[in-house]
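REQUEST ID: PR-0412
SUBMITTED BY: lab tech R.K.
PRIORITY: routine
TASK: structure prediction, single protein chain
INPUT:
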Amino acid sequence: MRKKRNFTIRAKPSLREVTQFVETARRYSSHIMVCHGKITANSKGLLGLVSLFVGVESGDQLVLTAAGPDAEQALKQLSDFFHNIPIYEGTSLEASVQNEQTSR
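STATUS: complete
OUTPUT:
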């Protein structure tokens, strides 16, 4: 079964939130992709999603597609995930990545 869901992102996720998204996606057996414009990334791969989300701003449209036996459940939970990201000022994915790299 192949499913697709469009949604608007409320806030740009931090590196921690992208990591949580990947961990959530990995719980499903379906093949799940995230698309922003011409960029598509596997939802179970952290590096690809970080690259995708660097270009995402609040208010942008994303498309989630899933193919597999649990596609509907996966899309519901993963799109809900983005609706629950808190909106705060001063925290960006780029800053999170930089902080993570300098702390190593």
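NOTES: The chain is about 40% helix and 25% strand.
REVIEWED BY: pending
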